[in-house]
């Protein structure tokens, strides 16, 4: 029973570890792998909270751990990735600008944690850091199709949108996990990368994470259909 209760926290720690590995891969020039790790972190993030509720393992420790993991995987890791792929050309100024992303993300997380209105099923206040970090990972994968100036504008917009008071649709009523539509799009990009020949450079984790998460999505969808 104790092991079962610890499963959500293990997934959260896995999310955090993906962020750490992403930073390492980015520093060594393996940018696609670094981006994929952030996407895998998104998969784990979408699963831990739901499993905690299913297993009745909700805890203050788990909630705090989730925030710490999010700031690493979706704040620090994407900022390093965007620096190594685009902002490096501006030297120390580029590093300073890239470092703004986790600052805005940390503020957004802290504001959410103390918010008394977390129960809304229709919207978030500001863009969630998970979505913002995932978008940066996506930009680094397909950024060669986009001019650098546009990537810079999107980066700046995401920073301010995270701390804005704009209401963002939560998509919780969609029969998928938290951020399900966004994660599904990223899964499609992940499968595209696999098709393009990522095997051999990142042979095992992708092929374990992607099918496992797809099975999880299908199982969740079937349960919701049966309950409707």
From TrEMBL:
Entry's localization field: Endomembrane system
PROSITE patterns in UniProt: CDP_ALCOHOL_P_TRANSF
Biological process terms in GO annotation: phospholipid biosynthetic process
Enzyme Commission number(s): 2.7.8.8
TM spans (from-to): 20-44, 90-110, 122-139, 145-164, 176-195, 201-222
Domain of life: Bacteria
Protein name, as recorded: CDP-diacylglycerol--serine O-phosphatidyltransferase
